[in-house]
Amino acid sequence: MTTVDRRRVVARPGAWLVWGVVAFFFVNLAALVGSVVVSSFGTRWFDTWLPQGWTTQWYGRAWGEFDVLDLLIVTLQVCALVVVISAVIGVPAAYVLARRSFPGKRLVTLLFLLPILMPPITYGIPLATVLYKYGFAGHLSGVVLANLVPSVPFVILTMTPFIEQIDPSIERAARMCGARTWQIFLRILAPLLVPGILAASILVLVRTVGMFELTFLTAGPTSQTLVVALYYSMSAAGIRAQQQVDAMAVIYTLMMLVLLVVALRFVNPTQLVARVKDEPE
């Protein structure tokens, strides 16, 4: 037996342990999601492996009682506005951080990290207080402004490495030909940054759909997203069937899956990583 084979034999117990932990995690996750899906179609489910009957009435009740169509529209509106505004603000800001040196640059970068590293509830309460004071909270604008606080820094930190990988000599050559800064940014850098912009937009999209704290603190009756409505369906006073709440959870999960499938249709994360690795230094 060679030295390489011995190392493989020694490494096998550790590898099996890691794969066992991963398998245990995914089995429990599948069981949790599966139980919610099965419950959303069950009539009664007590002390048995499967419900005593099957029905789709819970989806109809949840759809009508909670106005799920309106919730989906509001959620998509919030996500679209947050993604577009974050890209418009974050990409130029990332360009400045990547190309310019100025006093306090590290401090500015640290400030951008804080909304991402800190729990949203820590700054969400004072942020919601300010938004209520000036009349933004309780409306769609307040929800969008609150979600921009962590989304813009997220775009900046995601886009900065993409911009740093572009050779600055391309910009210098364009300036020598008479191009202005905005022309260089729109006609030269923007096409090269499309993969990075799409990657940042996907991350912001998924983050906004799942952002509960900031949306909950600033949403009003007409500006609730699906995740906030799901919380209210669980905690509202009165008697509500658990199957109906599970149906709402399944609808929310399906929305997340649809958004991810659509996003991955245009951006392949593997190709993005390969592109980053293949960029010349």
Can you describe what's shown?
By secondary structure, the protein is an all-alpha fold. The chain folds into two domains: 1-55, no CATH class; 57-278, MetI-like fold (Orthogonal Bundle). The protein is 79% helix and 0% strand. It is built from 13 helices and no strands. The protein has helices at residues 3-41, 57-65, 68-99, 105-117, 120-133, 140-164, 168-176, 181-192, 194-210, 213-218, 226-235, 242-266, 269-278. Helix 3 (68-99) runs parallel beside helix 6, helix 7 (168-176) packs antiparallel against helix 8 (181-192) and helix 9 runs antiparallel to helix 12. It starts with a helix and ends with a helix. 27% of the residues are buried.
Quick recap:
By secondary structure, this protein is an all-alpha fold. The protein has helices at residues 3-41, 57-65, 68-99, 105-117, 120-133, 140-164, 168-176, 181-192, 194-210, 213-218, 226-235, 242-266, 269-278.
CATH top level of the largest domain is Mainly Alpha
Profile the largest sheet: none
The structure class reads mainly alpha
Which architecture of the largest domain per CATH? Orthogonal Bundle
- Name the CATH superfamily classification of the largest domain: MetI-like
Please tell me the overall pLDDT. 82
Helix content: over 70%
Distance between the termini: 42 Å
Write a concise keyword list for the protein shown above.
disordered C terminus, MetI-like fold, 281 residues
